[in-house]
Amino acid sequence: MLNTLLKAEHDKLGASFTEFGGWEMPVRYGSDIDEHHSVRTGCGLFDISHMAEIRVTGEAEDFLDYALISKLSEIDNGRAKYTMICDDQGGIIDDLIVYRLDDDEFMIVANAGNQHQVVEALNSRLANFPDTKVVDESGMWSLIAMQGPKTKELLGPLVDVDLTVLKYYSIAAAVLDGNDVFLARTGYTGEDGFEIFVSGNPSSIWQLLLSQEGVSACGLACRDTLRLEAGMPLYGHELNKDLTPFAANLGKVIRFDKPAFVGKEALDRDKHPEQRLFGLQGDGRRAARADYEIFLPGETESIGKVTSGVLSPTLQVPIALALLDSNTGLEIGSEVEADVRGTRIFYKVVELPFYKRGR
Amino acid sequence: MANPENLKYTKEHEWLLIEDDIATVGITKYAADALGEIVYVDLPKVGSEAAHMKICGEIESTKSVGELYAPMDGEITEVNSALDQAPDRVNKDPFGDGWLIKIRYTSLPDFLSSTEYDALVGE
Predict the structure, then answer these.
(1) What is the model's pTM?
(2) Closest Cα to residue A197, out of A82, A85, A80?
(3) Which residues does chain A have within 8 Å of residue B91's beta carbon, measured at their own beta carbons?
(4) Alpha helix ranges (H) inside A147-219
(5) Residue A353: is the preceding peptide bond cis (ω within 30°)?
(6) Whether residues A297 and A177 fall in one domain
(7) Do A31 and B91 touch (CB under 8 A)?
(8) From A128, A153, A331, B118, which residue has the greatest number of CB atoms within 10 Å?
């Protein structure tokens, strides 16, 4: 298993660890629910150095327009975009955030578990782009996420850029604690926050950020409950190679007005997959978990499965994302039942996200 | 936190305090830590029968679901109903306020001592 450069810091803080995408990552430092609330109300610090960083240079915008489903040529320098890389059948290889660093330079952040698949897929699509280079820089970058409503005021005084002008889904070079970093206003928690790309040893930056008043170290357990409340998919749960972006309700990410991109024909052919993701909300304290079956009320034939489910720490009710048959007439307000280890629990189909931050 | 010497233990990471014919049962600190923050505890009904190694309850954390095995045969005489409102007591005080059930036992299988349990969990 791989360790991040911050392993010693996590040990110092008494973290519990879990395996994730081939990495040994902190799952919690103390109470994952306290960590969750600290991100919703204050500021939480995450080591997400397991994420993969891939730099694309040269004819990068034309190449990415071909290799990915969105139109990256359209975004300005310093801006970011959430997108996906699909196979030629339209199946999702990974979901990505792509940052435009310069006219001819992009940085892709991919999921740890998909690093090699994404690098391989990108390389295999280079044939018509002789001047484009794809470099896997995952080994070179540590990534620290600082998330929560107090982040901007806590991070602001420590960096040489004005965070109030760095818009959501933007990235800028900055100096933090004497280190050259990239600061991106992106995240995976449903809160405002920043992701900090650090080359070299990130320990002093981690310590500095953690020493700010009101900053809590946060593990992957609360990262998962935070992203689920925010309705964000997690690869391996809501997304996989057997699903297209349409199944994940993310058809709008696809730009069919591009002349050609990998997966275009297959995606254009089938915009209404048999199953798609729904948001479910229950009551009580018992939560349906991933892989639990979902039924129409009183029925015995399953209409699909939960992909992620938890008792929401913020809303204090069970929430779930579920991949369900799309031809069963489900709509917002429809009732369904989850089989929770032999007991049927009521859920209602609700709008996503479950939680939306105040602006 | 050390595993108290006055308690008995099972390989399923439960502890027992045996007093006369009543055994108080909980899960160990090791088990509570491994589960993570506990958000829901489903306990058997008072008066129901407990059968050795049969599942008699569930302990849910944000991340996972643990099963509670009856450590012996007997009758459930009491359950910790305070956990309905405060399931996190199992994390905060697993060997005390976080106890789960009391059983009037009719059999007493072999249990682990605290030193044997320490060895099992590598303490």
Answers:
(1) 0.91
(2) A80
(3) 31
(4) 151-155, 203-210
(5) yes
(6) no
(7) yes
(8) B118
Which of B40, B62, B65 is facing A32, going by the closest CB pair? B62
Query: pLDDT digit string (tens) for B30-65?
Result: 999 889 889 999 999 999 999 999 999 999 998 888
**Rounded-to-integer distance, Cα B51 and Cα B76, Å:** 10
Compute the C-alpha angle B7/B8/B9, nearest 5°. Answer: 120
Please name the fold of domain B8-107: OB fold (Dihydrolipoamide Acetyltransferase, E2P) (2.40.50)
Domain of residue A157, residue span: 1-273
Are residue A54 and residue A124 in the same domain, yes or no? yes
Q: Helix A220-229 crosses helix A32-41 at what angle (to 10 degrees)?
A: 50
Domain for residue A359, yes or no? Answer: no
User: Domain total for chain A?
Assistant: 2
% chain A with pLDDT above 90: 98
Q: Are residues A269 and A298 in the same domain?
A: no
Out of A273, A288, A323, a domain closes at A273
Q: With cut-offs at 50, 70 and 90, classify the pLDDT of residue A180.
A: very high
> Where residue A296 sits, what CATH number does that domain have?
2.40.30.110
A24 and A141 co-located in one domain:
yes
Q: Are residues A256 and A297 in the same domain?
A: no
- Find out whether A250 and A311 touch, Cβ atoms under 8 Å: no
Question: Do residue B63 and residue A311 have CB atoms under 8 angstroms apart?
Answer: no
- For chain A, first and last CA: distance in Å? 40
CB contact under 8 Å between B33 and A16, yes or no, is yes
- Please indicate, yes or no, if residue A345 is contained in any of the structural domains: yes
Residue where one domain finishes, among candidates A273, A295, A322 = A273
Query: What is the rounded average pLDDT of the residues A116-132?
Result: 98
**CATH code (residue A26):** 3.30.1360.120
3-state secondary structure of A321: strand
A55 and A38 belong to one structural domain: yes
pLDDT in tens, A140-167: 999 999 999 999 999 999 999 999 999 9
pLDDT band at B122 (very low <50, low <70, confident <90, very high): confident
What whole-number distance in Å separates Cα of residue A246 and Cα of residue A254? Answer: 9
DSSP string over A3-51: E-TTHHHHHHTT-EEEEETTEEEEEESS-HHHHHHHHHHSEEEEE-TTS
Cβ neighbour number for residue A356 with a 10 Å cutoff:
12
Could you give the 3-state DSSP secondary structure of residue A209?
helix
Locate B102 and state its tokens: 């009391």
CB contact under 8 A, A221 and B65: no
